[in-house]
Amino acid sequence: MKKFLPIVLVAVLFAACNKPAGELVGIGSHANFSEANPYGMVYVKQGAFMMGADAQPTIFSVSDRSITVSVDAFWMDETEITNDEYKQFVYWVRDSIARTLLVEAGYDEYGIFTDDYYYEEEGEEMQIPLNWKRPVPWNSKDYDIMDILSQMNYEGENIINPALLRYRYEWINYDQAAMLANRLDITTGKYPPNARVRVDSCWIDENGTICDTTIVRKLTRRRDFISNRIIGIYPDTMMWVRDFQYAYNEPMLKMYFAHPGYAQYPVVGVTWDQAYAFCHWRTHFYNNAHKVTAQDYRLPTEAEWEYAARGGRKMALYPWGGNYVRDNEGCFMANFKPLRGRYTDDTGATTMKVGSFSPNDFGLFDMAGNVSEWTSSAYDASSNSWINDMNPSSQFDAKKRDPSILKRKVIKGGSWKDVAYYLQCGTRTYEYQYESRPYIGFRCVRSYIGERTK
Q: pTM to 2 decimals?
């Protein structure tokens, strides 16, 4: 080994001296960076396609107008988010609340205390980071600890109260930052005197109720662009009964999310707001475990979702490329409603395990049927007539007090209760972002960092 050491040192010195002095050579930070494949995600290469309905539109139709667009490369979950994966989010929130309660009660070992976290900014105390290396003592025999953790339970029951599982997150209102009236003057380093921003603000009152409002504040610093939200993240299980009256769906209500037998089924009963919160948490969870941060996890735009569903096929009516919902042997290609009352003809009654059918040419499963999927795009019937042809998106950051019509989000793919029309790649419909349904789930995407030509 000693024989090779001088050779290595000479090679390093030669490489260092090879850069010309006084020339622009860059700082050499991660010069050979290559993004690793995110676990459970599929790479979708950049490309162009015809976005919109494949069938001929009706005369003077605006909503069915097809346009040619291009999208950048991105990563996409190969299946919808499952119950088991969403439970990881639920359990993280549960454990973070438990650790916070213990820290507030004086058990400092469940927090990470440094001098940086003992000051206040404009009356706001900085949050103490939690110590995730120390397990939550759920089975502790210490009566004081048991009494603290019991605050999370139903009264008189040793069961966690789902209503208390709340996630607080912040985001930047880029729509407000992009307004010309809010443009930073780089010569003075200040915003215009009359600059104002419209953001959401959430808090919990003395009764434990989530309160929210939309405020207009004076813009003096970058942090003024930030909204915050506190949202209950447990899926709505009652929608199995509420959405299907005169039907016996109580077994699904009691078991679908809770029972391990449904672990690999797509999570449903999740609102767009909850899916958005999940993406925020997933980004935070990933970046805390890696030295080099990644692009944010997010919901796909309508264009990204449709492009991914087509699997690289230019005029694919369905994700599998054909114009029919059966294969050559007469078997159905997805989980949907083939005929009136005959939900089981495709081997599934309601939802099925993710990946029960073959993937498309990009390697993505269930891009048609099983459950419809949330996108990040706001629904507008005529959006194809005015959206950009490069990475098109009609996103609208609806504030809490905005009217419901501004809170419609595009859903794609069709579900177990839909007819074949809704399985088509170009079909679009919508749901309100605050609604939860037993036939709507979601999957995440992440923008690709690397050569655009890959």
A: 0.89
